[in-house]
Every structure is written in C-alpha cells, then in structure tokens.
Amino acid sequence: MPREDPKFREVQKFRQFWVSSLVLIPTVVTLYGAYKQLFLGQPFGNNPTSDAMMVILTAIFGFLFPLFIFSMKLVAEVREDGVYVRFFPFHLSFRKFKYPDIASYKAVHYSALRDYGGWGIRYGRNGKAYNISGNDGIMLEFRNGKHLLIGSQRTHEFLLALEQSARKA
C-alpha cells in the first residue's frame, strides 16, 4: 500500500551563518593543517601530531563532522492519522503522534536558548522540543500530560493542516 501524501510537509536544515561558521572554521583549519603537513612535509603548529593522527583528524573534522552537521534535517508532516516528525540522522524513521493521543495543540512563540537550552532534540521545562531555527512552532499537548514542541518556519500552514486533519480523525 503506498504511503499517503501529507496534508503538510516542512523540511528544515541548519543553514544559519553562525552554524556554518562553527562547522567550517575547524574544517578549514584541519584541511589546511593536513595539506601543510601531509603534502608539503611541513609540521603544522608548535606541537605537531603524527601523520597517522593527522589523517584521522582530517577524516573526522575535515569530512565527517561537516557531513554530519549539514545532513541534519527536521521533517514535520501532518497526515490523516497523525503528526509525523523525523530528525535525521537521529531518527531513521518517522516518530508518529496519533490524533487520539493529542489532547490539544497550538501555535507558540518561544526562545530556543531560554526555554530549551538550544537547538536540536532538546528537553526543557515545557517538555521535549524538535527545533532547527527560528522561534515559532506548534506545541502538542498529549493526554498523558506531556508536551512536544515542533519548530516551524510555516506555523500558520502547519496549524491549518493540523486543524483540518485532526477534525476528521
């Protein structure tokens, strides 16, 4: 049976300048050091590492770390049977939240740092959050009293799709 088309789908990635800077600065320094030490034969820094360790550091900080950060994405979908969230690469499949388990939902304005301690998959005084950027989202309150914030750049569309689909369920 083919998967249904979602009523709403949003894909967010870390594309803020400060995130790119935090990733690219160590990447460029590592790649420069590797080039200087491995290809030019000049030790990099005052206390250079071995060539083998430089290869390992280059693999990690020059390739794997940027690949990991830039592959992260938050996918939120509203479907007929519930809300689906996937935070790749931490979730290899969607987390499904069925409408009968959701007591209420609303659009919220929040501070990622103050309310949740940052971005990503976070836990704060208001429950769990999946967020990538911005300060708007949808807060789901479940019948068991728990809360889940899903960050969104398109909160109005998200809420509209949620209202339409939840009413039918």
How would you characterize this protein structure?
The protein is an alpha+beta fold. Helix content is 37%, strand content 32%. It contains four helices and nine strands. It has helices at residues 17-39, 51-71, 112-116, 155-168; strands at 8-13, 73-79, 82-88, 95-98, 102-109, 120-124, 127-131, 136-142, 147-151. Helix 1 runs antiparallel to helix 2. The two termini are 20 Å apart. The relative contact order is 0.16. The model has no long low-confidence stretch (mean pLDDT 91).
Instruction: Assess the beta-strand content as a share of residues.
Output: 25-35%
Task: Estimate the helix proportion, in percent.
Answer: 25-40%
In this structure, how is the largest beta sheet organized?
5 strands, mixed
Helix/strand structural class: alpha+beta
Shape: elongated
Radius of gyration based on Cα positions: 21 Å
Secondary-structure element order, N to C: EHHEEEEHEEEEH
Q: What's the average pLDDT?
A: 91
Q: What can be said about this structure in brief?
A:
37% of the residues lie in helices and 32% in strands. The chain is of the alpha+beta class.
Write the layout of secondary structure elements.
Layout: E1 8-13, H1 17-39, H2 51-71, E2 73-79, E3 82-88, E4 95-98, E5 102-109, H3 112-116, E6 120-124, E7 127-131, E8 136-142, E9 147-151, H4 155-168
Parallel strand pairs: 7-9
Antiparallel strand pairs: 1-2, 2-3, 3-4, 5-8, 6-7, 8-9
Helix pairs in contact: 1-2
